[in-house]
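ok new one. same drill as before - structure tokens go in, u give me an amino acid for every spot. 134 of them this time. try not to just spam alanines like last time pls lmao
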């Protein structure tokens, strides 16, 4: 098997590529698309900056705001099918663009984020599960 030619996630530009790929997929998705299209009335640049800050901090250990992995104003139903689909699309966006340890960390983080939101667990700093391995 030939080694992958895809790079690992290493820069803020890589995070932007990941988010743009994911949100393009989500916007066209049969299940999530209507939610994302409804939120198109909201100014997307700021939510993307906030979400980017989360992923940059988690994956690249950057300083600055913590951010949040979802648009704060998005009415994403808190049911399994929505978060499973969010997770599937996010993992696909990672796998289409990146490979390596940081890409694997992005996938693991997305799975943990989806799991936490889906089960409505009490809020906890999102970075703590990376530090504690839980």
């Amino acid at each position: 098997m030939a080694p992958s030619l895809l790079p690992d996630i290493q820069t803020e530009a890589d995070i932007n590529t990941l988010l743009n790929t994911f949100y393009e997929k989500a916007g066209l998705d049969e299940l999530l698309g209507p939610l994302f299209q409804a939120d198109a009335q909201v100014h997307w640049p700021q939510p993307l900056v906030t979400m980017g800050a989360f992923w940059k901090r988690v994956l690249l250990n950057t300083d600055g705001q913590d951010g949040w992995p979802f648009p704060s104003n998005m009415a994403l139903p808190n049911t399994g099918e929505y978060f499973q689909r969010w997770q599937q699309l996010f993992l696909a966006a990672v796998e289409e663009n990146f490979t390596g340890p940081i890409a694997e960390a992005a996938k693991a983080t997305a799975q943990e984020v989806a799991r936490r939101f889906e089960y409505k667990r009490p809020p906890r700093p999102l970075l703590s599960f990376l530090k504690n391995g839980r």
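Residues 12-132 form a domain with the Globin-like fold (CATH 1.10.490.10). and btw Residues 80-97 form the longest helix (18 residues).
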